[in-house]
């Protein structure tokens, strides 16, 4: 049976563990599935994260979401990143369609997150800006371990820590991403994460808080 994602690529991936646990899997969304996923991607407005439950999407995108709940996917990802029982953790899925100039500043993700996975369904990414950089420290975007174009069906996943710094150079325009976050079991932590995400969006609109954008 043809699938949207290539779990064999994930199984063969070589994660890095210094200074934090992460992996990059180019072509995780199969090349022949990318056009259908792009066609069925939710129609979104504005440069912000949208909870996927509040969007409308087509069957290929729905199939992608279902495969991201597959037991083998969760086991492989958890094993690579050193997280036991990843499938048992609460999960949040957001989608984003656009990027603005204030996005991409260096951050680690909210402390309530255990693992973040980013999927980039755009077939190609020719732009210089908007390329995700996994960083050695919070000091500079140029001090990076790896730079990942946000396209080609690539999967990037990392275990959140106090040093899981990442960001990207400015880009304005379309930049599609699916972000899956597995959260701490604490209901308080999950509530605070949602409040922080909404607060960041509105503070950015006011120009008060441009440096904590969880935009992947």
Strand order of the largest sheet: 1-7-4-9-3-2
Let me know the average pLDDT. Answer: 91
Helix coverage percent: 10-25%
Count of separate DSSP helical elements: 5
| Gyration radius, in Å | 16 Å
Question: CATH topology, which one?
Answer: Jelly Rolls
Structural description of this entry:
By secondary structure, the chain is α+β, with helices and mostly antiparallel strands. It has a single domain, classed as Sandwich (Jelly Rolls). It has five helices and nine strands; from the N terminus they run αβαβααβββββββα. The protein has helices spanning 7-12, 34-40, 59-67, 71-81, 187-205; strands at 22-25, 50-51, 91-99, 113-120, 132-135, 144-148, 154-159, 166-168, 173-183. Strands 1-7-4-9-3-2 form a six-stranded antiparallel β-sheet, with helices on both faces. Strands 6-5-8 form a three-stranded antiparallel β-sheet, with no helix packed on it. Strand 5 and strand 6 form a beta hairpin. Helix 2 (34-40) packs across helix 3. The chain is globular, with a radius of gyration of 16 Å. Mean pLDDT is 91; it is low at 201-212.
């Amino acid at each position: 049976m043809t699938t949207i994602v290539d779990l064999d690529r994930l199984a063969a991936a070589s994660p890095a563990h210094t200074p934090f646990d992460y992996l990059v899997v180019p072509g995780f969304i199969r090349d022949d599935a990318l056009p259908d996923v792009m066609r069925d991607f939710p129609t979104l407005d504005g440069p912000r994260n949208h909870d996927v439950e509040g969007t409308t999407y087509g069957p290929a995108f729905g199939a992608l979401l279902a495969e991201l709940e597959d037991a083998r996917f969760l086991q492989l990802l958890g094993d690579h990143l050193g997280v036991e029982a990843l499938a048992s953790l609460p999960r949040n899925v957001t989608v984003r369609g656009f990027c603005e100039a204030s996005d991409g500043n260096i951050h680690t993700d909210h402390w309530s997150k255990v693992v973040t996975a980013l999927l980039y369904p755009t077939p190609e990414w020719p732009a210089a800006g908007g390329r995700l950089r996994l960083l050695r420290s919070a000091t500079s975007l140029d001090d990076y371990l790896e730079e990942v174009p946000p396209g080609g069906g690539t999967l990037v996943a990392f275990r959140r820590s106090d040093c899981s710094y990442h960001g990207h150079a400015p880009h304005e325009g379309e930049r599609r991403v699916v972000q899956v976050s597995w959260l701490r079991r604490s209901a308080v932590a999950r509530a605070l994460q949602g409040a922080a995400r909404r607060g960041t969006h509105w503070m950015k609109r006011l120009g008060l808080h441009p440096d904590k954008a969880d935009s992947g």
